[in-house]
Structure formats: structure tokens, C-alpha cells
Amino acid sequence: MLELLFLYTVLFLPSIQLSAQETNAADAVPVFLNGEAQVVPGFNDPDTWIREDLWVETDFDTDGDGRPDRMHVDVTRPWQTENGTLKLPVVYNSSPYFAGTASTARRYFWDPRQELGDVPPERTHPPEIVRTGTRPVISTAHVADWVPRGFIVVHSSAPGTGLSDGSPTIGGANEALAPKAVIDWLCGRAKGYKERTGDEEVFAFWCSGKVGMTGTSYNGTIPLAAATTGVEGLEAIIPVAPNTSYYHYYRSNGLVRHPGGWMGEDIDVLYDFIHSGDESKREYSNSVYRDGEFADGMDRIHGDWNDFWAERDYLLDMKPMKAAMLMSHGFNDWNVMPIHSYRIYAAAKEMGIPVQLYYHQNGHGGPPPFSMMNRWFTRYLFGIENNVEKDPRVWIVREDDTPSNPTPYLDYPNPEASPVMLYPAKGAPSRGGLSTTPLHKQGAETLVDNYSFTGSALAQAEKTEHRLIYVSPVLQDSIHISGIPSVKIRLSSSKPAANLSVWLVSLPWNDGRRAKITDNIITRGWADPQNYRSLSESVPLEPGKFYDISFDLMPDDQVIPAGQQVGFMIFSSDRDFTLWPEPGTELSIDLDSSLLQLPVVGGNKAWEKAIIAGK
Ligand SMILES: [Ca+2]
Ligand SMILES: [Ca+2]
Hints:
Blueprint: E1 5-7, H1 20-26, E2 31-33, E3 36-37, E4 50-57, E5 70-77, E6 88-95, H2 143-146, E7 152-157, H3 174-186, E8 192-193, E9 201-202, E10 207-216, H4 218-227, E11 234-240, H5 246-250, E12 251-252, E13 255-256, H6 267-274, H7 279-297, H8 307-310, E14 324-330, H9 339-351, E15 355-360, H10 370-381, E16 394-396, E17 407-409, E18 417-425, E19 431-435, E20 444-448, H11 455-460, E21 468-471, E22 479-483, E23 486-493, E24 500-507, E25 521-527, E26 547-552, E27 556-560, E28 565-571, E29 586-590, E30 595-601, H12 603-612
Parallel strand pairs: 6-7, 6-10, 10-11, 11-14, 14-15, 15-16, 19-21
Antiparallel strand pairs: 1-2, 2-3, 4-5, 4-8, 5-7, 8-9, 12-13, 16-17, 18-19, 18-30, 20-29, 21-28, 22-27, 23-26, 23-29, 23-30, 24-25, 24-28
Helix pairs in contact: 3-4, 6-7
The structure holds calcium ion (2 copies).
One calcium ion (CA) is lined by residues 254, 302-304, 528, 530-531, 538.
């Protein structure tokens, strides 16, 4: 590739007399090489950076004081921007975590020991957060990466956190309107003030009018939230492991289903976890949001979809969005699961928004390689034509790739993947088979719910009544799964309510020599059989009557090596994710009417080849 060197030109250069060294620094401008912003010596001395804070006024009032809420903002910029001629783009990062968080001791979470359909046991709130931090610096995140490369870095505390007014609403409208207001201020359309309550204005005279946002997890959700407002000037976002729907975070197909690693967490727990804002406003916020809107809407009894959750799903708000999006996620992120990114990627692609997806095989977090982010922001914030939009749309860190050298693909799911239908063959309480041809007259097999066994113990058990598992022949050749597996299960329950969990596993289980235990969990999914008709209405099951339940498992892209078997495991309560009702509920599965649909690169041919090769 040709190495191209660009200089970012400014209209006016400072005319004051300076020594030779100072002249060089004073003349510093962004420099680009291979389509990426480079470290510029004149921007590279943190001691010379200007750090300031201010408050941006929004047009909402979510703390009930009758005044528009102001957001606390900090700015870190090269001193050369002070003269008003050098204008630079902004990398903006907003978070509810900057000023401290509450205890995550499990006694402050919901108790998962709850009978399905019952009112949950009371929850104890954690001690209130003692706000931390000193002005003017809210955070130093991303500063060392971007300021030396000619970007200005801006942070803001989310509503109701730190020194920002308002209330946390956990995905409510103000969490999109707050970053929008900050971007409006950066672009000269909203008012910024030196103090939280004063009248002295501050202007972003140093901003080029081009803003990008990035962050991980909640901090990756906020860029998407801002982008859904369609705010002018937000040119590009890089959300890393964003939560794009609070329903998909705390519920699954009608079921109360916790984020992995956070048993008992729910939306009100997250509210308590971040609520570090003004002590004098907390009582108001608690009563209106946590104990009001949330308590009324979150429905921890049924787990059903409703307006409360719809308001907190960014997929439904995407119409105005136009920011170019590079998104990153791990296929083994069982906290914010990979569907969160995929659904937004698919919609953005459909809308014609420039979009790229970087998927890796690890857990929560994990940004794209820095040079990929740099190319993205250089193209969309500096306007350097580096052709990033012509790069492959999808990058996947293959099992033996390093994170910085992912494999490019035309799209995700892999365009060459097609569904393979796999049918369970009876075998309970041992392992049954998995057939490519439909089977007949097998009848039903029954499992007994018992949350005291983990899914991984159940998958490894040779024989147990607490799960049903159907495994493929030993693969003679590797298979490449790419896409969203789905299941159809016809079941009856001995009680009016039951959890339903499905894991796809790779057997034999990791014997300790392989790198990651997550290799064995291909993907998984959860559903409430009571929602067989509708996601928004739970209907008690008639014991003994069979119902058809269909749902998707989490998206995946994984190569299963030769020597392994693919296992389709059906069980009831999942100790690591679902509620823990009293053990004993029996689920019977009608095998002839149940199936797994597995997207495999090369489809049936590849699957058959893997099964019969070597025979
Ligand atoms: Ca207010
Ligand atoms: Ca339900």
C-alpha cells in the first residue's frame, strides 16, 4: 500500500514570536499516515494540555427542581487550540460510573430463590454512594490515546451521577438527550456554563464540529443512545459490548433471566449501583423512578415485554440515526450477550449507515484493534479519505487469531452459512442422538428441574434426570457455525410455570489442556413456555398439555474442531441465569416435534461431510 502523508491545514497560524522549539509546538497540526492520525510531538505533552470543566444545559428536568438539568462535562485539549484558529474533532465518552458506584454485595441484589409467578421477596438497597472525584477532571479515559493524535477528549457524567443534575433512568429518554445536549454544545447549538448554577457561559470555540463517541458496556450504550437522536455533528460511534435493550439484558423470551455473573441483578439494582448524583435530589429520583416507574414497569413476576421495556430498546429508536458505526462484541459475552450488537448492526446495515462489526471469542468488553478505531475516527471526524468504508464489513477473531489480526468476512452471519436441521433421538437419562432426518414415534422424554446443578455439570453428566441432551456423532472434520441457531421445542410441564433453558455444547468437556472453558459452551438461550403465544402475555400452562415454543439462541461464529460432538441440551432452571424455583417441576419433551436449527458454513453438505468423513 502507498504510504500517504496528509497535513491537516488550518486557516490561520499564530503570529506571536516564539523560540524555535516553541514555534514547532505552536505550529502543531494533526498528521496522518496510512489513513490514521499520528502522534504529533506538539500535542504529546500532557503537562501542556488544557483541562477544564463546565455544565451543559439540557432541555429536560428529571430531578424535579423545576430547572433544566445540567450535565457535568470535562474537556482535555492541546493548548494550541486556545488561540481559536486550530479547531479539532472530539472523542466523547459519557458514563454513569465516573463518580463512584454502590456495593455489589449480593445481599443488595434480588434473591433468585423465587417461585415463578410469585411476588419476589423484598430487596434491600445498598448504602447510598459517596460521590468521588475532584474538579475539573471527570475522567482520564481515552485521553492518552487521542489527544496526542490531534483529537480533543470530552467526558460527561450521565444524568443523576457525579455532578450532573437529573436522575438515572437506565435507558430512559434523558440518557439519549443528555449526550445530545453535550454534542449540541460542542457544535454551538446549546448553552454551556462555568458553574452548575451560574450564568457565565462557556463556548466550545475549539471544536471542529465533528464528534465521535466510544465506550464499553454502559459507556458503549450511551454512544448508541446519542446516535438514535440523529444529532448533527455526531459523525461516528464505536460502541464496545453495548447494551442495546434493557429487556434483552434482564429478560429473555418472556423469562426473568439475569446477566451472566450478576445473579439477582435487575434494572433497579443497576439504578442503585450508579446513583451518585446530588444527595438532596436522590429521594425525589428514587420515588419517581426506582420505586415508581421501575417498580410499576419492570414486572419481575412475569418477565413479559411491555411499554416500560420498549422505551428502553434502542432498536426501536434507530430511524433518525446516521452516525457511522464500528461495533465490537465478544461471542462469549454472557453479561451483555452478543445479540445486543447483532440486532443494531443488522438494522444499521439495512438503513445504509456505514457500519463495521468486530467480533471476538472472549467475554465482556474488548474493543477493536486501536488502528481500526483510528481509521474509523480519522475518516469520519477528520474527513481523511482513507477508504475505511471499503474495508471488509465484518472482522472476526478466529480461534487461532490474535485480537489485533482478525479475519475479514463479507458479512455476518457468514453468507455461506445455511441452516442444518437436527432432530433429537431418544436416550434419556443418558445422551441421545442428533439426527439430520426427522424421526417418528419416539414419544416424550422427561427431565426434572433442579437449579442446584449448574449447566456445565449437567452437560458433562453421563446420566442424569435433570436434563435431556442429544449429541451428534463425533465430528471427523471441523464445522464452522455462523449465525443465530434456533430451537423449536414441544413440551408439557407438570406445573403452570417452568423455566426453559437450552445450551449448545461441544463435548467432550474441556479436560484442562485447552485454553478456555467457554470453548465448550457454543451458545445458549432461555425462554418462558408461558409466553408461547405472545412475548407480552404469560399464560399459565395446563399441566400435561403440550405447547410449541420456538426461540433463538445467542448469535455465534465458532469453529468446532474434529473430534468433538455437538450437544443440544434442554433443561429447566439455569443456576447461572434464571430464577431458582423449588426443584421438582417435570418437563416432558415431544422428541418427534422438537428440533435444533444450526447455521453451518456450507450447510447440510458440510455437516454431512463432517459426520461421515473418514468412514
Ligand atoms: Ca432539574
Ligand atoms: Ca413470562
